[in-house]
Structures
1.
Amino acid sequence: MTWTISERAQKLTSSAIRDLLKVTERPEVISFAGGIPTPRSFPVDHMRAACDRVLSQDAHAALQYGPTEGYTPLRVWIADALSKHGTRIDPERVLITTGSQQGLDLLGKVLLDKGSSALVETPTYLGALQALKLSEPHFQPVPCDEEGPVLEGLAPLQLTAARMLYCIPNFQNPTGRRMTFARRCALLALAKAANFPIIEDDPYGALSYAGDEVPSIFSQDPEAVVYLGSFSKVLAPGLRVGYLVAPKALFPKLVQAKQAADLHTPSLNQRVIFEAVQGGFLDQHIPRIRALYAEQCRVMVDALQRELPEWVQYDTPEGGMFIWLRLPAGNDATPLLAHALQANVAFVPGATFFAEQPQTNTLRLSFSTPTPERMYEGARRLGGLIRQHCHPDERV
Ligand SMILES: Cc1ncc(COP(=O)(O)O)c(C=O)c1O
């Protein structure tokens, strides 16, 4: 049998990070590659009790098919949580998704045609590029400064042709950057003027070390934004429960796309999440996770300050789990990774996070899981490799 693979599928590529994760599973490898939550943040006893309650009180429904839109009490809880930050959100606009990753897939299918223009940050989340790529859009990278995306650099035609702007305003994956409130408002104004929706992906918003939150773009105008949220970083990614909140005009199409994809997100998992969050558990739990990541970040930055040459640039994140390193122009982090793997240390070369024209002199470090000892040792090895294999001057 010769299998004819569709043109669309032929263009798919494997995620460089998922491939790298296979190597970094070896215990001797100090991995700054993953970007997964630390298991220390999982409230295991609390989740066990939530599972027990669901299975003893509501087993038949939990083990049965359910509505595509999701478990109503969870939708109501999410709408209430989001309403605290501004306009009252209608639970009818909340769609429970199988991770926020599924939200990206559904939005690509509903909003993009082959060749249609999708504005994306430079750089951006690799998983979003993968999900949207299935709809074969034309990615239009938007240059970014330290405040966030700068749409003003784009020609008016590039704005009016856009079908969406995808962005991650809080502690972005991969740069760790948080968009300022002024920039959020400026993006919204430009998007409304040019008539394209903003897709606001917000898995890390709760992970601000100081506990301060910048209002979401969505809270400023829920009619112009699709908001994606997730329980992956605040409870447990393995349950695969996320959500999106979409304007009325879009909602039925997203539901239909989800019907085709998986009928619904697992009934049991949705109920377990609801049991876990109702009653205010996250109000105590999130400060614990914030403290955990703040400490991981403090150690990582200290290790980098001690071990990296001063010509490697990075910003200290205010939340989340990533640090973005910039080597002088002309260096390439991909061959550096080959040397790093030989020295049993791993990171993700930055090139993989660019839709177009990769900046090869960048790399992403995740500090969520390693112990302090391994962070210091990993930074020492990385610093040595950078001194050995990279040049300190800019070469274009
Ligand atoms: C920016 C961003 N969006 C979405 C996701 C997917 O998360 P989920 O586990 O909710 O599917 C991730 C996962 O790391 C992410 O970094």
2.
Amino acid sequence: VSTPLRALGPDELPPPFPEDPFGGFFADGGGPGAAPPGLLDTPGAHHWLGLIRETMAADRYTFQQTLEGRSGARVTVGGRSMLLLSAYDYLGLIGHPAVEAAALAAVRSHGTGTGGVRLLTGTTDLHRALEEEIAAFKGVGAALTFGSGYMATLGCVPALVGPRDHVLVDEYAHRSTVDACVLARARLHRFAHNDPDALARELDRVPAGRRALVVVEGVYSMDGDVCPLPDIVALKERRRFHLMVDEAHSLGVLGATGRGVDEHLGVDPRDVDLWMGSLSKAIPSNGGYVAGSRELVYYLQHGAAPFMFSAALCPAAVGAARASLRVLAEEPERLDALRRNAARLREGLRGLGYDVGGSESCVVPVVLGDEERTLAVARGLFDRGVLVSAVIHPAVAHGQARLRLCATAAWTAADVEEALDAFAAVRPPARLRVAGA
Ligand SMILES: Cc1ncc(COP(=O)(O)O)c(C=O)c1O
């Protein structure tokens, strides 16, 4: 029986965004009667193409370096061995024999691809096992995996909220969360970073009776600080919102056994409605997951678009992810090494006068402020055999350009000292301090 079509009432029309979530990045210069602008006539394209041209002309373009072989503490770039300081492989599991063996075994038993999407013919016993293991690891009822962490967020947020709902997002949240809100056409609110009072004030702006989803991150990917989860959970008890935590950088890293920010801060994982994470960081594979109650997961298996419109994780990725979770439990010394290296790196950089912000995890930013200076320092380190990621606008706010270092258990103590020596040599530290920092 088909439902007759009817016009939408004014209250049912999608509300506009309260602000342009991309700050005019995609705006074009066309006006009424003007010829349509070209495909690359946007502020975003002009910004990037100009910057690429300038940095290449100044020989400061260090992005997209081609690694010839595995990632790790040492990588080969252009035939040269380099110390890598910015890989997400926090536990140093890339190249772990058990992880590689599991990936190869999965290819032998299940092939290179599943030939299907998860809802139809792409679900294998390996996927089921991984999802049960993730749910058990996170201490919740169930989990489901997606092709990437980005896809997990892009899949679950629009499945759960729509134009009548409000999503309140920490201002430092990852781009995937903002994109998911755009796709959901939900009302997007941003609140001051890691500030539960600012969140409470923003909640006051949500009309009574409307649903509110709050999204925070376990560890913020550009700053390395940790969300105040106990305060947010306490606020949730009073204000009745729904809570999603992105653990891309806290899974396998925070907590006594690497279970994440809940373990680190003593929060019951069931107090969070939606755990999301990546399988491409501490877990050196590919993919993402969402974990929560069984009912939520049953729904998302049918309601999250990528689960039926995008291919299932390939068996090798599933095998590697499962083995990594096992290694994490069997080799706790990796967490110790990671924390030791991160602490020494932070302390050493501070000692040299660098601004590492409020980092309290394995993500260690070196905030240099100015984009040109940041690119120049990245290039200076590159010339000294040290590969780092420079992060500039729009990934961070203007004036907040930085090198983003990621500690790893793969470094030896000597590697960390070598990194610090390179930072000491690259320029006099006093000139690198951000004004006012
Ligand atoms: C905070 C955060 N969320 C989500 C993602 C997306 O994860 P993935 O790389 O698995 O797509 C990232 C990736 O860097 C991230 O930093």
3.
Amino acid sequence: MSDVRILIVGGGLAGCTVAKALEDAGRGDDVLVIDPDRHAPYDRPPLTKAFLGAEDGLTQRPPWAPTSVAWRADCVVAVDLATRTARTASGGVITAETIVLAAGSLARTLPGRDGRALTVRTADDARRVRDLRRAGAQRFLIEGAGPLGLELASTLASDGADVTVVDPATAPMERLLGGALANEVAGWAQAGGVRLLLDAKVVHVALRSDGGAVEVMRSDGTPELFDCMITAVGSVPAPLMLIGPAGPVGAAVVDDRRRLVDVDGTVFPGIYSAGDLPFHRDVNRTLSRSESWTAARVDGEAVVRDLLGEEPVAAPVPYFWTRQFGRMVQVLGTIPLGADVHLLAEVPKTGGSLYQATHGGAVVAYVGVNAQRLVAMLQTQPGPVADWAPPEG
Ligand SMILES: Cc1cc2nc3c(=O)[nH]c(=O)nc-3n(C[C@H](O)[C@H](O)[C@H](O)COP(=O)(O)OP(=O)(O)OC[C@H]3O[C@@H](n4cnc5c(N)ncnc54)[C@H](O)[C@@H]3O)c2cc1C
């Protein structure tokens, strides 16, 4: 006999999507969510945007407060996949009929940054940066010109801080935009008052004894002083020990139905994983994680569908958005490195643009910059991006 029917490890977007849908289906009494974050559940995207820049409280989309779902503040440290038993940091042992692993990810750090550079993943992380700024920190170094790094730069610079962004890549948001639109993005950052140093990296970080400032040596040998350094170089799956019948399982890998599978693709019965945590295997058997709000929601919905015995639906085209320097940037599809990205339409009303990305002769993605209406029109089309008709008007 299990302690609970459905244990959800992690009350972020993926976990809450599952818990809320089960509650809506009248199954809330079956569910226990465990999460160590004292503020959870809340939405992460505002942490580098509105929440960082103003005294906003934490928000959640869609708003949800558990009524019949049980919620426990604790941290799951290990899960035995065969017996479906979870062990928690406080010494708890919980067996469940079904376990949903939705522990998300942690900010990736780099060697030599411990105690010297901050990261922003949680509400407390964002609050720390905001408090430093309010206490007078003026010079910020952001390591990483990805969406999060540029959002941090945008918010801090618009608050009057001196912001430098450094990245060894030659184009900003290279992983998201495949190296395209580099001049455009660099232009927004520059116009927003941000110093963008590409093709450069931090090789040494030292804490100064005089007031906690950070001294940074760049690869070109230039030493510089900052009040605060933030490392924003992506994320790694949350550490969670998974024990299979044959020993530790290195990583959470899921199939299309978000069921946990081993290296051979054999399903661990009753174990699902959703959101930032698990790896998905593509047609070439390459493993990758999706680190986007929409993917976490889609994953959670897929888990619920399977749990309720409903037919799976085709995965939607990947979608990511970032708001920075007064622009809403939306990417529909995936842009490989070296793809050709060209302007498809301009939106005079918003000063926006819609770009189309092609690779190997096929359309692989669309990028909207302040072009929400056109992106919304594209999103109504079924099937892969390659089959979509470009929007008119
Ligand atoms: C600052 C920031 C800004 C972002 N902005 C955007 C954006 O603009 N657009 C976009 O598409 N995406 C954005 N994202 C990404 C998006 O928010 C994530 O992809 C999404 O939150 C993933 O949801 P999740 O539920 O998988 O993980 P999370 O939201 O990380 O939730 C995981 C939960 O699990 C809990 N947990 C961790 N370990 C354990 C454990 N061992 N036991 C129990 N619980 C545990 C955590 O406390 C957390 O509450 C942003 C992310 C961040 C951090």
4.
Amino acid sequence: VDKKTKIIIIGCGAGGGTAAQLARKTDRNSEITIFEKGKYAQYSKCGLPYVLSGEISSFNNLIEFSENWFEKENIKLYLNTSVTEINKTKHIVLAKRDNEQIKKEFDKLIIATGAKAFIPSIKNIFENNKLVSGVHLLRTMDDAKALFSELKHTKKASIIGAGLIGLEIADTLYKKGIDITIIESLSNILENTLDIDMSEPIKKELEVKTNLFTNHIASKIETENSRIKQIIIKNKETNQEKKIETDLLVIATGSKPEVNLAEKIGCKIGKRGGIIISEKTLTSLSNIYAVGDCTEYKDFVTNEPTCVGLGSIAVRHGIAAGVNAAGGEYNLPSGLLQTRTSEFFGFEVAAVGLVKNVIKNIQTVYGKFSGSSLPHYYPGGKNITIKVGVNEKNGEIVSAQAVGSNAAQRINVFACAIQNNVRVENLKKLETAYAPPIAPTLDVLTLSCDVAFLKYSRKKR
Ligand SMILES: Cc1cc2nc3c(=O)[nH]c(=O)nc-3n(C[C@H](O)[C@H](O)[C@H](O)COP(=O)(O)OP(=O)(O)OC[C@H]3O[C@@H](n4cnc5c(N)ncnc54)[C@H](O)[C@@H]3O)c2cc1C
């Protein structure tokens, strides 16, 4: 008699939910259980800023796969249920829903616990172990709902962190007519996505539309009636302090992998604090997989360990883990490209690979080109700037950044090139589609490669 494979998944986010779906597709008979500590089935975290802005009309629209959907697929989803312990020798998971203890056996376990918000140390930010009233995070649906409920009576808001999510929030609140202050401890905005020369125009726009403080640390909060009233920021160079009145503070300073359960059973944790996984998404322990934001994997170009923090990657991991746990075979590419994009304050931004400040072990030459999305004679062309990085040794493309029209789709072409070890000499000759109302004869993406190739050739001479 066929024995049903018992698959347990911890966490029903992008990674865990996808893993369940692919396990079901791969094996119609397996017994699949998901434990999710929150109260929602699989929803899009990435869409949260757009409910705040009103572009998406309701939080409910973000639910991608409902409880009913999982039920129809014969996947048992426990909501409001926290996994408290894994027993790896007995192959048992212990979970808690209110006061009820649930004990379940597994053949294959998939850890998809995501990440938790990183909160920098700021004096007075906690009261009775909770964030002071008016101070918010944006990681979960409940975080977003709490923030949303405050927007109507907010006149001044401050945001700590000028990364992709910080600027998405800033843009949302700015569009609501709120006076925005952005505090960033690094000397530049979007430090993990764009080089300084590429982010310059966005920084200039922010300086006009918001109060932007780069190179500043939020050191202290002052409250009135237990609610945030002021934030004190300090210039990192001069130590000079400044007080900023604020009705609201949003912390967007990144996240840390949630690895508690995995660490306790001895899954190898990497340099970057994530669970180390293989091409099959296996952890260091047999029959135990991990996916998404709780993991770490290699960078495709540098081979250096890198943490995951993107929904696209979590879903790809979920596909791999679901297929593999259910007896199929799915290998991840040998590394991560970190292809990413966003839009704020009128700028579409996208990048693939590491920025100049981070890509240390590979000598890189850069080519940059600014042009239009349409031929110069056709009305309505939009600016697009692309910068491409090329390995000085072998001419392979290692990174690209774009700001402007269709940045993401253009960056996807570079992602394809990097993943297939394409040399700049070849990409510069790519035959791109052309028609006056759609695209120019030679696309900015190939023109940026022309510039990079020239520089690369000069180095070679
Ligand atoms: C505001 C915002 C905007 C974003 N925008 C983008 C974007 O535009 N593009 C992009 O690629 N990425 C974006 N991301 C990142 C993306 O959302 C994450 O990479 C993705 O959600 C990771 O999926 P995950 O399944 O690994 O983790 P999560 O989605 O965090 O899911 C983990 C789940 O595990 C549950 N859990 C944890 N511990 C336990 C336990 N012990 N027992 C039971 N359940 C547990 C949690 O409750 C959670 O639901 C954004 C993130 C945020 C917060």
